[in-house]
């Protein structure tokens, strides 16, 4: 059974209000009495009631982190950055995995709000969910949005320049004389997918080239999604000179499909990804990709959230931080 302030007050033979003030560091108690109370509390292994304290202070010292795919190595790196910086700032983190499911994401929002978190960091499943999240959270909760070109009143968004990242990838592939490029990515509506497709088209325009709609293939944002989409592309006779995958996990599936067909990379088909997850640099994969500062983005998200909480200006903020992409050229191109 947990020890209460009342238990400490009875053992110390001191009034409840005095014990409460001593434990919370408030004035109105002599230093001698405070030391006595703290010593008894330690002996009794007293643990403050975090929920009760949060109701009084209107702060829980907890934040929510919602990511869409815990199996994609991109997101655990972000989560590690969030957790490390949160620990430094004495914040606890509730981690939620939406699994790219809008309904599941909305349920997590409700649960985090019920837990009275001080703020939410989210990599959203789609553009259309952002406004609903803001509506559910109200004007008194800061939100940090990761990934994509989102802008929402009362929020800060942090993302790499997806358009530029895809554009420099395409320019690299075209510079290497690869032609008939394909883009394999998720469904439209997800900001990062739409922006990277925009960059794919922009890269072609720099060479005066048009993009064939037949070479744009939707897939699940997974290894199996990339594998299936690449096989579908090859089955209909659309062998590209190179493929830009919307993320590295899709690119891994694309590579597997190409090699299963007995084709060589990059001699027959070059492949480029996006994110630079740890396995992208492994021997035998050596994936050309766009590097994102994933861990740093997680840390940055907490710092931005902490700044909003300290200043209490989050109801009016509308800030977008855009990071520069870096193309990492390896053996797949």
Give the arrangement of secondary structure elements.
Elements: H1 5-12, H2 16-24, H3 31-43, H4 50-57, E1 62-67, H5 74-88, E2 92-97, H6 102-114, E3 119-122, H7 128-137, E4 143-146, E5 155-160, H8 162-175, E6 181-185, H9 191-205, E7 216-218, H10 223-235, E8 242-245, H11 248-260, E9 270-272, E10 289-291, H12 294-311, E11 318-323, E12 326-328
Parallel strand pairs: 1-2, 1-3, 3-4, 4-5, 5-11, 6-7, 6-8, 8-9
Antiparallel strand pairs: 10-12
Helix pairs in contact: 1-2, 1-3, 5-12, 6-7, 8-9, 10-11
Going across the major beta sheet, what is the strand order?
Answer: 2-1-3-4-5-11
Binned strand content: 15-25%
Q: What is the CATH T-level topology of the largest domain?
A: Rossmann fold
Distance between the termini: 63 Å
CATH architecture of the largest domain: 3-Layer(aba) Sandwich
How many structural domains? 3
**What CATH first level of the largest domain would be assigned?**
Alpha Beta
Helix content: 40-55%
CATH homologous superfamily identity of the largest domain: Response regulator
Whole-number average pLDDT? 88
Question: Which class best fits the helix and strand makeup?
Answer: alpha/beta
Tell me the overall shape. elongated
Low-confidence stretches: none
Radius of gyration: 25 Å
Number of strands: 12
């Amino acid at each position: 059974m947990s020890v209460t302030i009342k238990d400490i007050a009875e053992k110390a033979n001191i009034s409840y209000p005095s014990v409460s003030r001593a434990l919370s560091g408030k004035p109105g108690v002599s230093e001698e009495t405070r030391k006595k109370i703290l010593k008894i509390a330690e002996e009794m292994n007293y643990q403050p009631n975090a929920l009760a304290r949060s109701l009084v202070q209107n702060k829980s010292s907890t934040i929510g982190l919602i990511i869409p795919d815990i199996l994609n190595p991109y997101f655990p790196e972000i989560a590690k950055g969030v957790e490390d910086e949160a620990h430094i700032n004495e914040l606890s983190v509730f981690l939620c995995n939406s699994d790219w499911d809008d309904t599941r994401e909305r349920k997590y929002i409700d649960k985090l709000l019920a837990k009275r978190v001080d703020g939410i960091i989210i990599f959203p499943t789609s553009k259309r969910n952002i406004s609903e999240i803001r509506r559910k959270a109200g004007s008194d909760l800061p939100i940090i949005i990761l990934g994509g070109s989102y802008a929402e009143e009362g929020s800060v968004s942090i993302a790499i320049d997806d358009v530029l990242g895809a554009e420099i990838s395409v320019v690299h592939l075209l510079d290497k004389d690869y032609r008939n490029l394909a883009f394999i990515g998720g469904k439209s509506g997800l900001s990062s997918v739409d922006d990277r497709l925009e960059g794919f088209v922009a890269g072609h325009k720099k060479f005066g080239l048009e993009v064939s709609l037949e070479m744009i293939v939707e897939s699940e944002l997974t290894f199996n999604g990339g594998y299936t989409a690449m096989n579908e592309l090859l089955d209909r006779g659309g062998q590209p000179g190179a493929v830009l995958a919307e993320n590295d996990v899709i690119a891994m599936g694309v590579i597997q499909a190409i090699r299963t067909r007995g084709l060589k990379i990059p001699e027959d088909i070059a492949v480029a990804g996006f994110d630079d997850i740890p396995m992208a640099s492994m021997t035998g994969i050596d994936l050309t990709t766009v590097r994102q500062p994933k861990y740093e983005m997680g840390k940055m998200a907490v710092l931005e959230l902490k700044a909003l909480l300290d200043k209490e200006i989050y109801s009016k903020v509308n800030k977008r931080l855009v990071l520069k992409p870096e193309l990492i050229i390896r053996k797949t191109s």
